[in-house]
DNA sequence: CTGGATCCCTAACGATACTG
DNA sequence: CAGTATCGTTAGGGATCCAG
């Protein structure tokens, strides 16, 4: 039975297309960072926590669980005390490395350009952007 | 002056690195879709609204404003009645097209793989994922 | 027509404390 | 060590009405 609501032709513009939710896996604040961190190999929970500056245990757990559920990471629990849990990318997760790297490259390369654009925008009139139209991320950096 | 807190070497793992917030421009639910929509040319607000299924006027406005501020889109207001406002990608925004396309490709190609991973995960024991560990997006698709 | 302003509810998230 | 549980705050975001 492959007769669900899914089209043969995925269409990112349709709200009910699976590709939408698939794309949004990486539209999370942390997923790309986890991908980067695990890119070079297996890491334990605490190692990830240290590597990814600013993430809380809650968000790390949450992100890892979601990624595991979506088949991006593998979670291996070693039944010892104290517990050892290792995370690594699955092949599916590794397939994501390159695309996400391109985003990183873009970010690195255009970092100053973006910064300049912001300053320019903020200086020009632009009736003081009301808080509602700023994302948390943007406010953080003020 | 280039002597702000920014390193010569951007480091995505640092919370205070500009590249972090730059990367997160596209970590928004809607930004990638706006990029896709504007990829082929200029569109008006209402056209974007129609093209991007499921977006609200508020989120579209918000997303466009953020993208404008960050130099990704250009907003042109034609002083006519009724008003005409056109949006298009700046060169900076166009530079984002390719990376984001790779994500789209990844999503399209691995769509079923992800779906299968989810089903497999959900069937196996896995003490019923508590709501807290699911993102809104994930809940939506249940 | 465009899109700003409000209202309001919910989900996201950090911080902290706690357990197998 | 690797999380889970809980609490409190705040941002996200839909719906709606309004103005230029």
TrEMBL record, chains A, B:
Keyword Transcription regulation: yes
PROSITE patterns to which the protein is assigned, alphabetical: HTH_HXLR
Pfam families: HxlR
Span of domain HTH hxlR-type: 17-115
Entry keywords, A to Z: DNA-binding, Transcription, Transcription regulation
Entries under PANTHER family matching the protein: HTH-TYPE TRANSCRIPTIONAL REGULATOR YODB, TRANSCRIPTIONAL REGULATOR, MARR FAMILY
Protein name listed in UniProt: Transcriptional regulator
